[in-house]
Design a protein that fits this description.
The structure is a homodimer.
Chain A: E1 4-5, E2 11-12, H1 22-34, H2 38-48, E3 52-53, H3 54-61, H4 65-77, E4 81-86, E5 89-94, H5 97-110
Antiparallel strand pairs in A: 1-2, 3-5, 4-5
The structure holds a DNA duplex.
DNA sequence: CCGACAAATGAACTGATGTTCATATATGAT
DNA sequence: ATCATATATGAACATCAGTTCATTTGTCGG
C-alpha cells in the first residue's frame, strides 16, 4: 500500500514518515507524556490496586492535595483514568486495562 | 510476598506503593520521557524502516542537523538507539525490537 | 443557612526541555 | 597539510510543565 504510482507504473518514492500522520504522532507523544512523570506513574500504579479517592492517593504518595488534583486532571483529560462522585469524595480509577499493559511493557524493557 | 509479619503473625499493612521501588518508577518515567516528544518519536519511526545516517534523518524530518543530533544523543543515552561510524557518516539504528513494540502499543491505545 | 470536610482551580514561581546559532571535532579526498 | 563534508557540542534563549499557595466550589451534617 505504500507509494503512489506514476503514469507508467514507476513508483514514486514516498516520504519515509508519511505512513504515520503528523496528528497521530502528536497524539502518541501526548499519550506517552502522561507516563513521563514520576507523580503520574505513581498515581497510575496506585490505582492498579483498585479505585481510590483523592485523599487516599495523597497519603499513598505523600504529596499535597493540590499537586495530586492537578495531575489527576491531566490523566483524566488523557482518558487514562475516570472518576465518580461518592458523597463528598471523588473516586478515581483506571480507565481500562490498557494502562496496566503499557506500564508492564515499560517495566519489562527496563529489566532487560 | 507482600507485607511483613509482626511477632505474632499479624500482617503489617504495607505501603501501597512499596511493591515498586522509587528508583524503578523514576527509570520508568525516564523511559517514557523519550517517547514523549514528537521529534524523538519521528526519529524512532524513521529508524523503523532501517538504519539511517544523520543527514537522512534530518531530511526525513525536515529539521536542522543540530536539533536532530541533540535528540539522537538523548535517545542513545536511553539506549533506545545505537550507532556505528561508516566513513564520515554516523549510522543510527533502533537498539532492539522493544522500541517497535512500545510504539505499536501506544498506537493501539490511541485507536481505541 | 452555616460550618466542616473533600476536591478543584488559578496565579505565581521554578526548574526542565527543545531549538537555534556558532563553533569544534572527526573523517576522507586532493 | 588543507579543504570539504558529516556530525557533535555548548551556550543562550524561549517555552513548557510541576509544585505551591491561596481561594473557590461542592457536598454533607446539624
Amino acid at each position: 500500500m505504500a507509494g503512489k504510482y506514476m503514469t507508467h507504473g514507476t513508483k514514486v518514492p514516498e516520504h519515509p514518515l508519511s505512513c504515520v500522520g503528523e496528528d497521530e504522532l502528536s497524539d502518541l507523544a501526548e499519550l506517552f507524556k502522561m507516563f513521563a512523570d514520576s507523580t503520574r506513574i505513581k498515581i497510575l500504579y496506585d490505582l492498579t490496586g483498585g479505585e481510590k479517592n483523592v485523599t487516599e492517593i495523597c497519603e499513598d504518595l505523600e504529596m499535597n492535595q493540590s499537586a495530586i488534583s492537578h495531575q489527576l486532571k491531566l490523566l483524566k483529560t488523557a482518558k487514562l483514568i475516570g472518576c465518580r462522585r461518592s458523597g463528598k469524595q471523588m473516586i478515581y480509577f483506571l480507565a481500562d486495562d490498557h494502562v496496566k499493559t503499557i506500564l508492564a511493557m515499560g517495566k519489562e524493557h527496563i529489566e532487560e
